[in-house]
């Protein structure tokens, strides 16, 4: 059964109440989170939005908002600039502004990755007040092992303490990367360390890449170390690049029921489909994550006749 | 037909009103922007203002203000220092202070480009209040792919959230550049990524260099990816180095009507002409951008007898 | 006999009162400190919590809190994120938030060590007020000899002046490290220098690695220089990697009674045991540190029948 | 005829009034500025104050104040530390604190030049209020082309916007320098670019090194480009190393009447003379700069019997 | 005869009064300063406090406070951490907190020296208010010629402007050092430059290393250039490593009466002696510095029977 998290300590009664409301809203009262990840327009520039098997719908950023609005996602994570531009037309969606982002132009071989905070928490607070949107939390990426790790840990720790004071959740994207990490980016033990690090920072949820076994395949049992290491911080897995729906849902189910994760963060697998397909795919994810259904039940929701 | 933008979310009713007024003023109620770019005295030092075919008028910075004052430009973008020195005599011009600038002395081969914010937004606000000038927004250049990208993205994101709170628009100059970009600076797909990045930052307009095809020529159809990727952030193309008027206007018309851009940012092509020619040239640009006229109609405005 | 410290100068009467209460609480009125160190989930990621002879209990961060709650530790030092997440269920434990932490991914050969402050002292103060927890002080690690030494000394000095103003103690982890230190990390004279440096920063307690003699073994007499150099700042030794209980307790007794230290900081030797063993082990440590008992008396407490 | 500058925009009526008073005071109602430059005790350490043909008077910093007090200089530019130490005895002198300075110890071959702001503008404001001195403005040096250019441009731009708000003028020392500039430091076109850059920053006056022709000699006609590029920002030339008086005054006259500069900044040529000679030399400079006299008239003032 | 300094300009009447009181206290109404330097526990770690001919008393930091309390020193300069820990028992001593310090672990060959400010001036002010100690000023070390010179000059300049506003004196330790300085660290002309630089920063006193002649020996006549260059900023010489008393006092007398210095800063030569010897030695120094006595008179005070 999913764990229901308690609000972290250190905030006023009012903030605790708002945090709890946001937690219930984004986990849809299930304790599990279906985060729709839409930060790739910075992280991968336009590579994820055009070409190959990507639906033509995806060329327009509004595609992301249409999906998030009509599909049962727990929150839609993207950059503040887009939220401020489209939020007025999609005001029912729970939003999670991603506070730092970088492009992928500089390879690790040239320089270790670094991604700095964009908006201040004061700016986020003012935005929430003036926009009236359902902003349920904030997101931030750390790269443990990067030479710029100290700056990112410091920024993350500070905003994570400010977030609950504003009633907001904090989600950490934790990706070991850099010259010192080398090819170990998806090593189960290292990823477990990153998950524990996020817990020490105070994240409510930590998004990790699912670890791979020595054959390079995902294996739900490998997630156990990370889930344990994260303790009361809840683990969600990144979806990765586009995958066939049955395989994706099977992996997701295994992550949750074998690995013990508390949800998922899915981006390209959702928005690279056309709008109707994407919405159906979200419904299937939602069935597994929030309604605790089986893969077979979820797969039925993919049919256009549903 | 041009798109009419909505004010971004996250500001008070009063700021929204002021933003809307500024948007209407600078787009001349057309939804399209004719930005006169005059930041080259820092970006290129005196190279653009003397020698060769440059009109002798251009040696004096006041030339820029005379043109901007008498020609139907949507706004004149230049550094605060010049605005503070000439604005009292050209108080009807809509101004867009360019908040960061760098010289071109250091080649990319020596070090990746970096341009830092000059004035704080508080200083801009105080200037607007005391000067009484029509300051309609602020501008900032980012270099995606530079090793200094994180600092520039952070500065840009913060000022873009402060700008609407003061009723100001934000225009981002987005130029992929640096060791990691190499010769791909005008690649259509990379430029589309940069346009989408500016949208994620929250820019109202993004100024890009028009992409070139494999033969090194501009091709309006290549702009479509960037215009789509930018979504509700509107794309304007930089004018580039001095070009013959018919070719320039033809390209501009193609950018708008084939590529789907919402205006242009023109600098050297305007101010390197003498004052009467520059003003006539602006009228021709204005005809295409704001009045949606044909190239032939615009060309007629270039005649000294007009 | 243990020294009883006086509150440092420079705070209000109320803060002095609170500092003294915290000092008495954490030293259990003995003047000696048994600090349970639990910052390894960042410093060593998951390496200390799984595998080999590590008890399976240790995979879950709550293990640390269970031990700290039931064992007679003077304080439990860990990152704020964990305290905020578990403190509501373990509210009797005296806590010492560790304010900076880094991973061990980057070897010194790649770059000198640097660990930056995570939360601001204002955030700590707000946390204390809202949480109601017994936060008795703050911790910070310095690496004398690192190329980043200046930044860490500056951060440490500032927070150490802020801590007593909030009634909090300050504990400095002082580890000479970096290219310039090389293999001298556990040289007695250099460690004495580091202890004196911590005194100059104003630390109440300084945690050092016990110096080794030329044969690579601990020798309590080597501690004398550090204890003298630290003056009124009290020296506690790090416990190091897991060791057999008799040897550990013998060394601890020697550190205190030969070396003149005022306590110990123990982490892996405690939490890598299962819960009952860990609690018994803490009782043995407590007997030596706080009750001034002999090694034999302490060893008796390790029996499961106690 | 000299140009009389208008106050820049963006300040309150009271600040505008104070700026105008300061401008009239320092230009002695002439619109031209005779700036006595005395920042070399940092920029060149003691090299300019002892040895060779330097008058022994110059070993004592008070020499600078004695000259500035008794000679008709428009302002005396030096570091705040000296002004605070001698100002009480020389309270009639108009002062211009030089806000950044560096030594010349590090050659450009080792590292590009960088000079950071010393005092904050708030500290300057407090000093002015408490001291009662006639502080008419502030000075700052930029090195276009240095790898540290971005930081210096940002500092300069910010203090230049703060200065008029306090009624103070801003003088920029603009010296292209660095690996990317190489031997072009006194190239006329590059210096014109630097003058234009200072105008874009908002400087009231820009101090440049007079450009040299291909034979390495000063040529007043080469100044025209810089004077034009600076627009309403007024150009003054640095005096350079000690020169014979007739040659110096001839060059100054040529800079003003051929090159169009609005004054001069003279340091070593003044203070390396003994006090009576220095004062007479200043009177000669003053005659040319402020009273618009000929070189012959100015030379007469050098006679000890005058 | 000693010069009596005036308070620098730029502070309120009350602050001026407090500065004057502090100046009289620390110079013992003589205009000359006997600064007891005790910052070596950071600068040299434990190297100066143990071994060789160092008295065993020196192993304990309290030794410094005992001497400073019982000997007629003008002020005792050390780090804030020690002052806060021992000041309650030695409350009559005038203190000068040294605001920056670094260890000597990193050789200049590895990296140029850099020492950053530890406490903010606000923290110093709060400490003074709460502690009630006689804090008469603050100290800061600059390394002209280091690649980190700009940061240190900026920090120094800012705190020197804040110090008098709090009634505090400012003492600058000025040591040319770094790759660009090489072996010229004790060159008379370069040291004179450093003294003049400290004057430009606004130091009340500047501590320099006495210059050496080409034979590597101290020569009082070489100090003249520095004393002149410093102007109203008063020069005191560092004492250097331990020396025989007669030679030390002879050199000190020469520095004052030949070189024109206004006191001395003595550390190791004092505290490396046992307490009675150290106090007698201080009395001898005091006789020369404050009472203007001869070396012979001073030497008599070294006798245990005095």
Walkthrough of the structure:
The structure is a homopentamer of 306-residue chains. The first copy, chain A, is α/β, with parallel strands linked by helices and 306 residues long. The first copy, chain A, has a single domain (13-300), classed as TIM Barrel (Alpha-Beta Barrel). In chain A, 41% of the residues lie in helices and 13% in strands. Chain A contains 12 helices and 9 strands. Chain A has a 9-stranded parallel β-sheet with strand order 4-3-2-1-9-8-7-6-5. In chain A, strand 8 (234-238), helix 9 (245-259) and strand 9 (263-266) form a beta-alpha-beta unit. In chain A, helix 3 (62-70) crosses helix 11 (275-289), helix 7 (188-201) runs parallel beside helix 8 and helix 9 (245-259) runs parallel beside helix 11. The first copy, chain A, is globular, with a radius of gyration of 18 Å. Chain A starts with 12 loop residues before the first helix and ends in a 6-residue tail after the last helix. In chain A, 62% of the residues are buried. The mean pLDDT of chain A is 96. Chains in contact: A-B, A-C, B-D, C-E, D-E.
How does the major sheet of chain A shape up? Answer: 9 strands, parallel
How does the helix and strand content of chain A classify structurally?
alpha/beta
Instruction: List the strand order in the largest sheet of chain A.
Output: 4-3-2-1-9-8-7-6-5
Give the chain pair forming the largest contact, with residue counts.
A-C, 46 and 44 residues
What's the mean pLDDT score of chain A?
96
Number of domains of chain A: 1
Q: Would you identify the regions of chain A where 5 or more consecutive residues have pLDDT less than 50? A: none
CATH level 1 class label of chain A: Alpha Beta
Return the CATH topology of chain A. Answer: TIM Barrel
Determine the fraction of residues in helical runs of chain A and give it as a percent range: 40-55%
